[in-house]
């Protein structure tokens, strides 16, 4: 099982400057290497024995460019630009590997047939992280001893270990990241265990969830979680700070300070949202063994007028977190087909057409009157239960006995007299 734990670092001013400098040098090297790749691509587009209508290579046709040729070129880079000698060599290779990964994602579709976009040239400040691929072994450039991270070329940095690294896990690699409020280190942790599957026969409590605009989610049991709307609440403060920023002279000292203030506000909203997502996911996984959810067309929805509300709720990242939490707690999180869940009657299966405005589901054939999202929740649950045994997406377990901190509000929806749950 793989986990990532992030800790704040407490570097000295010199170390912080040095790390920023590394980021900048790696950014330049990224841009150079990307340019090299794009150039080679452009020049070798037409086959060698024919003419291209669009363009003709001028001069020498370059050799193949890939990770290996670029990594071999690092020696020359260091000879031409001696400042690259100060960067730990593995970090530079990791930088090239990242580029290679982005490049391949652009060319080779994944198993769903999707490809990434063209790798981008990075602007100043865009690369603010670098990776030490090995840690705590003989040849490693990074060692974590107690709460001190000893890094090659950078020296010793204090790590604020606000929670212990879990027992039995090996630290695989360390990534140093710059955020608006300082430097952080992310440890990738791994242990060799294969998570146990909670047997299908042992599933006792099941739930279907429907995410909506009025409520963050509604379960098939009739519980509704309110949307906290973090972004909307901070909007006024954000707007004020951004206005201030726009009046300042770009690039000045005050501008930098104000830009950092705005970035910190965004970071704050992001963290609030993430915390909320984790709380809801842990709450669901502590109460239920199986959670069914629908796959959403978030990109499509975000193009509508409701975009701000939809992006503020960030269901996409919530569903990712939910699946991760389910794996960690040994519960099931299964995706159900979302097509027509709001139209279908959960009581009798009849189609009941409605528009976005109709908030209540009224079935003419069986007389079921129920909240619209609640109805969809029950439908999703039914669909997931039907497919169980055929499709598995989240399973396994690491014993988690943490109490669930619940700071969000759950509303019990009013149960109709004629509620039929099959
Ligand atoms: Zn019905």
Q: What does this entry look like structurally?
A:
This protein is α+β, with helices and mostly antiparallel strands. It folds into two domains: about 1-190, no CATH class; about 200-410, no CATH class. It has ten helices and 15 strands. It has helices spanning about 15-45, 65-70, 75-80, 90-105, 230-245, 255-285, 300, 305-315, 315-330, 370-385, and strands at about 1-10, 130, 140-145, 150, 155-160, 170-180, 180-190, 205-210, 215-220, 225, 290-295, 330-335, 360, 370, 410. The relative contact order is 0.11. The model is unreliable at about 390-405 and about 415-420 (pLDDT under 50). Zinc ion binds near residues 347, 366 and 368.
Write down how many β-strands occur, each being a DSSP E stretch of 2 or more residues: 15
Number of domains: 2
Could you tell me the strand content as a percent range?
15-25%
* Order of helical and strand elements: EHHHHEEEEEEEEEHHEHHHEEEHE
Large-scale geometry: globular
Helix proportion of residues, in percent? 25-40%
SSE arrangement:
Blueprint: E1 2-10, H1 13-43, H2 67-72, H3 74-80, H4 89-107, E2 129-132, E3 142-145, E4 148-151, E5 155-160, E6 170-179, E7 182-190, E8 206-211, E9 217-219, E10 223-225, H5 230-247, H6 253-287, E11 290-294, H7 298-301, H8 307-313, H9 315-329, E12 332-336, E13 360-362, E14 369-371, H10 372-387, E15 410-412
Parallel strand pairs: 8-11, 11-12
Antiparallel strand pairs: 1-5, 1-7, 2-6, 3-4, 4-5, 6-7, 8-9, 9-10, 10-15, 13-14
Helix pairs in contact: 1-4, 5-6, 6-9
The structure holds zinc ion (ZN).
């Amino acid at each position: 099982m793989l986990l990532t734990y992030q800790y704040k670092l407490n570097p000295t001013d010199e170390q912080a400057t040095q790390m920023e400098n590394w980021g900048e040098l790696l950014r330049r090297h990224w841009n150079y290497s990307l340019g090299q790749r794009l150039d080679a691509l452009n020049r070798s587009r037409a086959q060698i024995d024919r003419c291209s209508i669009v363009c003709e290579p001028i001069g020498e046709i370059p050799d193949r460019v890939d990770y290996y040729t670029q990594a071999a070129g690092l020696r020359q880079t260091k000879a031409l630009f001696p400042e690259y000698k100060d960067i730990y060599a593995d970090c530079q290779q990791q930088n090239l590997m990242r580029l290679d990964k982005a490049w391949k994602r652009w060319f080779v579709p994944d198993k769903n047939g999707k490809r990434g976009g063209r790798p981008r040239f990075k602007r100043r400040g865009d690369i603010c992280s670098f990776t030490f691929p090995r840690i705590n072994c003989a040849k490693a450039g990074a060692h974590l001893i107690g709460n001190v991270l000893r890094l090659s070329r950078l020296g010793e940095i204090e790590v604020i270990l606000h929670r212990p690294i879990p027992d039995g896990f090996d630290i695989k690699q360390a990534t140093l990241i710059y955020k608006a409020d300082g430097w952080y280190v992310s440890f990738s942790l791994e242990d060799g265990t294969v998570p146990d599957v909670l047997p299908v026969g042992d599933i006792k409590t099941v739930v279907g969830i429907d995410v909506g605009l009025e409520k963050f989610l509604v379960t098939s049991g009739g519980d509704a979680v309110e949307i906290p709307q973090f972004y909307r609440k901070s909007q006024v403060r954000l707007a004020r700070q951004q206005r201030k920023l726009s009046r300042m002279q770009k690039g000045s000292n005050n501008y930098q300070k104000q830009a950092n203030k705005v970035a910190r506000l965004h970071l704050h909203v992001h963290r609030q949202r993430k915390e909320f997502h984790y709380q809801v996911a842990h709450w669901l996984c502590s109460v239920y063994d199986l959670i069914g959810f629908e796959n959403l067309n978030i990109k499509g929805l975000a193009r509508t007028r409701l975009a701000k509300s939809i992006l503020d709720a960030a269901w996409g990242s919530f569903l990712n977190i939910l699946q991760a939490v389910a794996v960690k707690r040994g519960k099931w999180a299964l995706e159900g087909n979302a097509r027509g869940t709001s139209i279908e009657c959960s009581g009798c299966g009849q189609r009941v057409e409605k528009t976005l405005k109709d908030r209540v589901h009224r079935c003419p054939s069986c007389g079921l009157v129920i909240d619209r999202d609640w109805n969809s929740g029950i439908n999703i649950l039914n669909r997931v239960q039907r497919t169980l045994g055929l499709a598995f997406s989240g399973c396994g377990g690491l014993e988690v006995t943490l109490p669930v901190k619940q700071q969000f509000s759950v509303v019990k929806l009013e149960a109709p007299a004629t509620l039929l749950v099959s």
